[in-house]
Specification:
- The chain is of the alpha/beta class.
- The protein has 31 helices and 29 strands.
- The strands form 7 sheets. It has an 8-stranded mixed sheet, with helices on both faces. Strands 3-2-1-4-5-6-28 form a 7-stranded mixed sheet, with helices on both faces. A 4-stranded antiparallel sheet has the order 22-23-24-25, with helices on both faces.
- α7 packs across α8, α7 runs parallel beside α21 and α14 packs across α21.
Length: 799
């Protein structure tokens, strides 16, 4: 299919959902993705998710346990660029598909392994499952339920989407390294890495305990403490829900004015509004009185008032409902596909927009084995000639320079991922600094490892310096509101004339044009707008206040993946491109399992139940006599093991439960058959019996494990955690690398830069003499940090 990746051949060994999701991201953007399925399909192959996750792919059926079929798979790999699978390395070795064997037989092949926990972690021997990982790692306890006590099953599959993003970023990073070294390699990203990758904003360790957010339930009403920030979900007078976010200069005061509290809230001038703590009365307003205030008006009135006052506000909708929004329609993100079951379905278009190499409209997902007859021809394909320098490379993205003019989290987080993989990411700030700087852990999570220069772009001499910097860059990123970059002199037309090879990557909230393009965008508003809070609430329930994962992380992931797509296309075309990656697009893509039917009614791909316990009888939490136990037993072999372990072997031969599809159709009966066994035992007793019988299960952790990981030696050794003794916040521990390359590993390092920490260094690199640098700094057109060592003052702490 046309798109930036239309020259790449991908083999997807689709036995787990994240593999299919990763394949979708590549296929959406032009890659030729061949889905290799078990005969009859994997356990999720007959579900509605296939309509999205497998669109634009081809499908063949092969049983990798069969020697002849395995030989056919290896034949397919001989002509492939990327092989994505979910095999643990031990499983892969038994099949001759381990990294060492594949590197020997296919030295140019990139292998992206989406494992459960990674071989270098304490959980390497635990069974795979998104629910199991969420239980084991304490993610189920991260958000409390308003309906009951205890762990909550993840309604939104954030770990699956996060792992798919990491798998694609890792694969495309290795593709870029291959263009230098001429060699392929193995890349690994686990469910554990996906959890860590969606945690750094709220989880670090700092010697005095400072944090902009309280530890514990991240959906709690007072989670921001005395930080001058309101973001959350509120019920309005008509019973409908909205979310607001008061980020941005003057946002908190503007929101309080609309809510009727303006005379009780002080005015804080300048960009650092969030650095001034709330007074006692302001705290009571923002954390208590505000809920009743929202019930004075219906939702539509509140949203109109807030948006007119430049306060970010959006409705909370069901998944796919946003496809009917005027902004989605204006930018062409809603597409129609023919469908055998529904006649027509409506989905979101490919998420990354390229000007020079636009992506084709997706094709409907194939039937299982639709391309079996073409297997011989597919095996005969030859990989395209690889033009590589044949030079050794230490870091996979070394030599890539990114200049980032953005503020806040999402764009910065994407750049931080590229920095960890070896890119030189330079953050350009105004003299006032990024408005997120007052939030220390949040800022550090997005900006760690970068260099920083301060330029007042409103001054011609400072703009000239910025243009010199861009002239040597590979990528420019920003999230300025539409039109502002042009006014500052850093719009696409201006920069592409200076540097025709430049990738100009714009990551706004909603897009460069359209009825919502000028609105503010903050997490978690867009994720609530695109359905995540209803996913987390469960069938028949109101939306929940918070879910694991949001658009800041997802837009960062998609931004990094999109940039890597652009770099790969540029390697072929020799020219740059204009790209758009709005938060709206990434949020639509990460709810792509849901769609609209021919009547434009919402269809859930799968849905959390009313008890917030799981998706179905074999992928859920069960109550025990003293707590809970989570199982993941949808595959045939896992179901059989479970049936025997609970003393109901007859379920195996029951025609109602003969296949994953039949089990789903008779889910209520299966749930009724299994629940009494769990209720009669303690969690420990049930776990011991099932685990000994090889049944995948976990007891949900009583508290989040993520901060404990910061103190694990294995996490430091694997570069998943890094420690800094001399950051501007003092002694800190924070999360590092989430993507692990076998031959050219990334290397997470450093803390976030001080404001203007590298101004002199960067100006010298682009040709400024010392006296010219002095002139820029002395005139206030540039700024160098007065001290690049020691602590800075941080008054923001919700702890």
């Amino acid at each position: 299919m046309p798109g930036p990746l239309d020259h790449l051949v991908v083999i997807e060994l689709s036995t787990e959902m994240p593999v299919a999701i990763a394949g979708m991201l590549l296929a959406d953007h032009g890659a030729d993705v061949l889905k290799v399925e078990p005969r009859g399909g994997a356990y999720f192959a007959h579900e509605l998710t296939r309509k999205s996750w497998d669109r634009s792919k081809r499908s063949v059926e092969l049983d990798v346990a069969d020697a002849d079929d395995r030989a056919a798979l290896r034949g397919l790999l001989s002509g492939a660029d990327i092989f994505i699978h979910a095999l643990e390395e031990g499983e892969a070795k038994a099949l001759g598909l381990d990294g060492e064997s594949l590197a020997r037989d296919y030295p140019e092949l990139i292998v992206s392994a989406l494992t459960a926990y990674g071989a270098d972690t304490p959980f390497a021997d635990r069974p795979r499952g998104e629910g199991l990982a969420a239980a084991l790692l304490g993610t189920m306890i991260d958000k409390s339920s308003p309906f009951r006590e205890g762990p909550v099953y993840l309604g939104h599959p954030a770990l699956h989407y996060g792992q798919a993003f990491l798998g694609v970023i890792g694969a495309l990073t290795a593709i870029r390294a291959r263009r230098t070294s001429g060699k392929g390699q193995r890349v690994e990203s686990s469910l554990l890495d996906a959890m860590l990758a969606q945690s750094p904003m709220n989880n670090w360790w700092q010697e005095e305990g400072i944090s902009y957010i309280k530890a514990g339930d991240s959906g709690a009403v007072d989670r921001f403490g005395r930080t001058r920030l309101v973001t959350g979900m509120f019920e309005c007078g008509d019973g409908l829900f909205l979310q607001i976010h008061t980020g941005g200069q003057g946002g908190f005061k503007a929101a309080m004015d609309q809510l009727g509290f303006g005379d009780r809230v002080s005015v804080v001038k300048g960009a650092a509004e969030m650095s001034v703590p709330l007074s006692d009365d302001e705290y009571h307003i923002a954390r208590v009185e505000i809920f009743d205030a929202f019930k004075a008006r219906p939702r539509a009135e509140w949203i109109a008032l807030f948006q007119a006052a430049d306060v970010a506000a959006l409705p909370v909708l069901e998944p796919a409902e946003v496809l009917l929004d005027e902004q989605v329609e204006f930018v062409g993100q809603r597409i129609a596909l023919p469908d055998a079951e529904f006649g027509t379905i409506y989905q979101a278009a490919p998420a990354v927009r390229f000007d020079r190499t636009p992506c084709a409209a997706p094709r409907p997902a194939p039937a299982i084995g639709a391309d079996n007859d073409a297997l011989t021809d597919l095996i005969a394909r030859k990989r395209g000639e690889l033009a590589a320098a044949g030079k050794p490379i230490d870091r996979p993205l070394e030599g890539i320079k990114v200049v980032d003019f953005s503020s806040f989290f999402a764009v910065g987080f994407g750049g931080r991922l590229l920095s960890d993989l070896g890119a030189d990411v330079i953050k350009v700030e105004t003299p006032d600094g990024d408005q997120m700087r007052p939030l220390p852990d949040c800022f550090d999570a997005a900006q760690r490892g970068k260099r920083d220069i301060v330029l007042n772009l409103k001054q011609p001499e400072a703009l000239e310096a910025a243009l010199k910097l861009v002239a040597e860059a590979d990528v420019v990123t920003h999230n300025l509101r539409p039109g502002k970059a042009d006014k500052l002199g850093i719009g696409y037309e201006a920069l592409s004339k200076i540097n025709p090879r430049l990738l100009y990557v714009y990551l706004p909230g909603y897009g460069s044009r359209g009825p919502k393009s000028l609105l503010k965008s903050f997490a978690p508003l867009v994720s609530g707008w695109t359905g995540l809070l209803y996913e987390g609430g469960g069938a028949g329930n109101p939306p929940t206040r918070s879910v694991f994962g949001n658009e800041d992380y997802n837009n960062g992931f998609l931004g990094a993946a999109g940039i890597l797509m652009g770099l790969e296309r540029r390697a072929i075309s020799g020219v740059g491109d204009y790209m758009e990656i709005p938060q709206l697009h990434s949020s639509l893509w990460t709810t792509s399992e849901h769609f609209l039917d021919a009547d434009k009614q919402v269809v859930y791909g799968f849905r959390l139940d009313k008890d917030q316990a799981g998706y179905n009888a074999l992928d859920r939490l069960y109550r025990t006599s003293d707590g809970w136990l989570c199982i993941a037993c949808r595959q045939d072999d896992r179901f059989a093991a479970l049936a025997r372990a609970v003393g109901q072997a007859g379920l195996i031969d029951d025609p109602r439960f003969a296949s994953p599809k039949e089990r789903s159709l008779h889910d209520a009966a299966l749930l009724a058959a299994l629940a009494p066994w769990f209720a009669d035992k303690t969690s420990a007793e049930a776990f011991a019996l099932l685990d000994a019988a090889g049944v995948p299960c976990e007891i949900p952790a009583a508290k989040s494990w993520v901060r404990e990981a910061l103190w694990q030696d294995w996490a430091v050794t694997s570069n998943r955690v890094i420690e800094n003794f001399d950051s501007m916040y003092g002694h800190v521990r924070q999360f590092g690398s989430f993507i692990h390359l076998s031959d050219t590993p990334g290397h997470a390092r450093k803390s976030a830069p001080r404001l203007g920490e590298h101004t002199r260094q960067i100006l010298a690199e682009i040709g400024y003499a010392p006296d010219a640098i002095d002139a820029l700094i002395n005139s206030g057109k540039a700024m160098q940090a007065a001290d690049v060592t020691g602590r800075i003052q941080s008054r923001v702490s919700a702890a």
